[in-house]
Design a protein that fits this description.
The complex is a heterodimer of chains A (325) and B (323).
Chain A lengths: L5 E14 L4 E16 L4 E5 L6 H8 L7 E6 L2 E2 L5 H8 L2 E4 L3 H4 L6 H11 L5 H14 L16 H13 L5 E5 L7 H18 L2 E6 L2 H7 L2 E6 L2 E7 H6 L4 H9 L49 E4 L2 E3 L2 H6 L1
Parallel strand pairs in A: 3-8, 3-9, 6-7, 7-8
Antiparallel strand pairs in A: 1-2, 1-4, 4-5, 9-10, 10-12, 11-12
Helix pairs in contact in A: 4-5, 6-7
Chain B lengths: L3 E12 L2 E13 L4 E5 L6 H9 L7 E10 L2 E2 L5 H7 L4 E4 L3 H4 L6 H11 L8 H11 L5 H4 L9 H13 L5 E5 L7 H18 L2 E6 L2 H7 L2 E6 L2 E7 H6 L4 H9 L39 H5 L5 E4 L2 E3 L8
Parallel strand pairs in B: 3-8, 3-9, 6-7, 7-8
Antiparallel strand pairs in B: 1-2, 1-4, 4-5, 9-10, 10-12, 11-12
Helix pairs in contact in B: 4-5, 5-7, 7-8
The chains are: A alpha/beta (325), B alpha/beta (323).
Chain lengths: 325, 323
């Protein structure tokens, strides 16, 4: 097996919560708290979790928009965890990002042509004529007419703007694209267009994706493997099919059960998960899921479960599974 | 007779570039105690339909330009403001998508909950707080007495939506309009809220209009479904008609485009090419014509009238029998 493209080990991102006159850090928001995973070239890892579970923070650590407070990130064999901006710069070509709301991530005062040309200018690639040709190519790849180059972002619909965001992300031929909720602001008929486009681009350019979203059905559809996050930690990870058919962690099971199925014949009386996600500033002792877990036992509030392998690439962090296995 | 009968509703907005019709000839009815779903994508007119029923259209731009809204024998479209105020919040409750904007940040939960009850005189002022605490208890908020003195920002998103539901249900309305009630919530919280609405509906015997873009929520909660597209009803029928025997190409396209847990990873999803036409440049004929793979010349010339596919199942497509 080839070496992984991205290797994240025990990553931590603790934000200080500052209070008082001197803004001393009184507590830490453990947004990402010891996360490890790998992504191979051309592979998609889906990252699923509810709001506040730390999935977006994790994505931003990998693009080094944040500098992690612990652990390491290795990209193509190089440790980039604490790399300085200057040395990081050439690597930025290889790691790109697609955001949820393209209206906020595209500069409203620039034409689409300018937006797409900018990465080449920043990285000093090609001359003006070459760059313009490449912009036209990019527009064609993402399914927009070439005349879009002279128009402004507001002239486009949400789905078209997301196509522009994708064109910008793939402009420099990256190897890894972090997709942070790329379709959650879109209508279903547009969402499927974008998902198909992302799958096509992956095949064509051998892109690896970290696909972050709250919608398990969407994530499962585009991913080779899926990791489920809860309160800053990965609680279960498995190949997509396995995860859906043999979900083991009680949280994953409740997450799957909570998704409304678009089939009126399968209206089932389900076990609804009680309570809210606790605050990551003061997470529960032991397993962080135990206050909501329908199967919690005394030991769950005492010791924290490790992510332990079940079968093959399937792993889960749950005391009950470790014992029965 | 149905609890609510919407007949040929037309809602217009005055804009700088003239009048646009956000809702154009929409008809459906809701039986007492039943759940009707309205599904469609952004801009299809589903929320404007709800605001028309509630007579909460933005003023002075929005107005009901035609049709009738018969509710318990009265035409809501023609009621004057004081009469409408007696119905709004009392006979018809509404839950909005974003609980933080539906709640007043500077008033306590208790004050906001009792306001409607006192206004509609459903309880004595002395008992109002007691009744409000009972209501919070019914929507599953722990330690309700304590919560009455708190402000909206002190609650989580799911708890806020429960408060909004408690406010909508405080006067035990006969109809609840829920406009994307779970869209802003996480999926496990969404399941809690949907269960809560279904449970309260059963206990209080009210009817529900569930407005959503999520076909999963529709399949889970509704008996009757209205599929809207660009201000018109594309298709309506029972939930089984819509999911098992969709007759309109738009309904079929929507159903094919949702990723499901059981579909194979990275398989191609169905797509509806193009996008919804703007309200200012609507096509002359069928509004779905520019995205429909089955469109022929006559689709571009005349708008389709609703036709019966079977009892209770109507479709607005000229070619539904050939497809």
């Amino acid at each position: 097996m080839s070496a992984p493209l991205l290797e994240v080990s025990n990553l931590q991102m603790h934000f200080p919560v500052r209070e008082g006159l001197f803004l001393r850090a009184r507590a830490f928001n453990r947004a990402v708290d010891g996360v490890s995973f790998t992504i191979n070239p051309g592979e998609t890892l889906g990252l699923v979790g509810e709001s506040g579970c730390g999935k977006s923070t994790l994505g931003r650590c990998i693009t080094r928009l944040y500098t992690p407070t612990g652990g390491s990130i290795r990209f193509a064999g190089q440790d980039i965890t604490h790399m300085r901006p200057r040395t990081l710069r050439p690597l930025r070509q290889d790691i790109q990002m697609i955001f949820q709301d393209p209206m906020e991530s595209l500069n409203a005062r620039h034409t689409v042509g300018d937006i797409l040309e900018e990465p080449f200018i920043v990285h000093r690639i090609g001359d003006r004529i070459w760059r313009r040709k490449r912009v036209a190519e990019l527009l064609n790849i993402v399914g927009l007419p070439a005349r879009s180059a002279t128009r402004f972002p507001f002239e486009f619909s949400g789905g078209q703007r997301q196509r522009i965001g994708i064109a910008r992300a793939i402009a420099l031929n990256p190897r890894l694209v972090i997709c942070d909720e790329p379709v959650s602001a879109l209508d279903v008929s547009i969402q499927s267009q974008i998902l198909n486009l992302l799958v096509d681009l992956q095949r064509e350019f051998n892109l690896a994706y970290l696909f972050i979203a709250h919608d398990l059905a969407v994530v499962k559809h585009v991913s080779d493997r899926v990791a489920i996050m809860y309160l800053g930690k990965i609680v279960e990870t498995a190949p997509s099919e396995t995860l859906y058919r043999e979900a083991s962690h009680p949280y994953t099971q409740s997450l799957i059960a909570a998704i409304p199925v678009p089939d009126p014949h399968r209206r089932a009386a389900r076990e609804v998960l009680r309570g809210d996600v606790p605050s990551p500033i003061n997470p529960p002792q032991g397993c962080s899921f135990h206050p909501r877990c329908p199967r919690a036992e005394p030991q769950c509030s005492e010791a924290e479960p490790e992510l332990a392998p079940l079968t093959g690439a399937h792993a889960a962090a749950c005391h009950l599974l470790a014992r029965s296995g | 007779m149905a609890l609510l009968e919407v007949d040929q509703l037309i809602t217009e907005f005055a804009t700088d570039e003239g009048r646009v019709r956000a809702v154009d000839g929409v008809s459906f009815s809701v039986e007492a105690g039943a759940t009707l779903g309205i599904v469609g994508e952004s801009g299809c007119g589903k929320s404007v339909t709800a605001l028309s029923i509630m007579r909460l259209l933005p003023q002075p731009m929005g107005r009901i330009a035609g049709g009738s809204l018969l509710f318990q024998g009265a035409d809501l479209a023609r009621l004057d403001i004081p009469e409408m105020q007696k119905i709004r919040g009392r006979r018809i409750g509404m839950v909005f998508q974003e609980p933080m904007t539906a709640l007043n940040p500077v008033h306590t939960i208790g004050r906001q909950l009792t306001e409607g009850m006192l206004l509609h005189k459903v309880c004595e002022p002395a008992n109002a707080l007691r009744a409000a605490a009972d209501m919070l208890d019914r929507v599953g908020i722990p330690s309700p007495d304590l919560r009455l003195g708190e402000y909206p920002h002190q609650l989580s998103g799911g708890m806020r939506q429960r408060v909004v539901i408690a406010m909508a249900l405080a006067c035990e309305p006969d109809l609840l309009i829920a406009d994307e009630p779970t869209t802003a919530l996480d999926v496990t919280i969404q399941a809690q809220i949907l269960e809560l609405i279904a449970d309260l509906q059963k206990r209080m015997g009210m009817a529900v209009i569930m407005i959503t873009h999520d076909l999963g929520v529709i399949a889970e909660t509704c008996e009757q479904v209205v599929v809207m597209y660009a201000g018109k009803v594309a298709e309506q029928g029972s939930v089984f008609d819509i999911f098992d025997r969709p007759a309109h190409p738009y309904t079929r396209g929507l159903l094919a485009s949702i990723p499901r847990l059981e579909t194979e990873a990275k398989s191609r999803l169905g797509v509806i090419e193009g996008m919804v036409p703007g309200l200012r440049d609507l096509p002359l004929g069928c509004r779905f014509e520019n995205r429909c793979t089955h469109a022929v010349d006559r689709c571009r010339e005349q708008p389709p009238a609703p036709e019966w596919v079977a009892a209770g199942h109507a479709v607005s497509c000229l070619r539904w029998q050939e497809l």
